[in-house]
Amino acid sequence: MKKFLFLFLFPISYFLFPSLTHAQEVSLVVSPPRIDITANPGETIQKTIKITNDSADRELILQARTFDFIVQDNLGTPIRVTETASGRYLASPWFTLERSELVIPPKSTTQLVAIITIPQDALPGGHYAGVFFEPVTNRGGKNTVSYTTTQVGSLFGITIAGDIKYDALVKSFQTKLNFNEFGPIDFTAELENQSDTHIRPTTKIVIHDMLGRQLTELPLDEVNIFPYTSRLLNGTWNQVWGFGRYTATLSAAYGPGLVASRTIYFWIMPYRLIAAIVVALDCRDCRCSPCSACSLYLDPSSPQIAKRSPR
Q1: Are residue 204 and residue 285 in the same domain, yes or no?
Q2: pLDDT per position as a tens digit, 55-87
């Protein structure tokens, strides 16, 4: 099994915590979005987080803390948990922050160094923790912002090298309709990660026509999938016109050279256009006007059909 340590970091202010509500408008940005590193158990990793106060004239005083998290839904939503609840995914005790409080002037950026010490006996696989920042209230200073709710930060996902099981499958893959008059064609897929660590599959949909010719290749978003959870993916083929049965194959490359895939079939049949062409051709042999013939053919119950002149 390939041995490596993968660490990612991305902002979580949007989906992990409530939005900041301010007495004065403030913009707080945490970066970078993701960091990948390779290491072995027992190593010490040092990473820098940048925190930017984009407000024009408001000073920020923030307290930095760490927490453990897990993911349970198919949308990738992290849930903050206690050390006991996090179980084998525990990682927050490995973190040491160079300081616990930050003061950021308006239109300024400060940095926080996080030191991650991997224990020698850490279990192989994924471990997850976050560093978050909450405002310190009731402090002096005319430029300090008053908050009613509080937390933004970044998530770390750490994969410890060792004997790691990698396994994933395409839990579902389908189009909105199996029979379509015309496009675009919408696809929905759900990938399930049965690995000991998170994965970030490179996923695509390849479409062939009924003659076996490849028509297009649609790349899907690359997303992190927490161990033993699934993630929804969506894609659209923007082709409008088509005819016949089509084959769509989804493939998701993950881990050390592994691929999960599934194939489905769907139809595009512009039946109303075909009917109009048939009627138009039929009208050439009919004594009635094209418009009247079309209306007769499109409404077979009309009593006027019996009055049509013989061919």
Answers
A1: no
A2: 888 888 999 999 998 888 888 888 888 766 668
Please, how many CA atoms are within 13 Å of residue 104, restricted to the half-sphere of its CB? 30
Confidence of residue 139 (pLDDT cuts 50, 70, 90): low
CATH code at 179?
A: 2.60.40.10
Same-domain pairing of 82 and 147: yes
| pTM of the complete model | 0.76
For residue 44, what pLDDT is reported?
97
Q: Does 297 lie in the same domain as 153?
A: no
Provide the token pair at 247: 């084959």
Same domain (yes/no): 156, 187: no
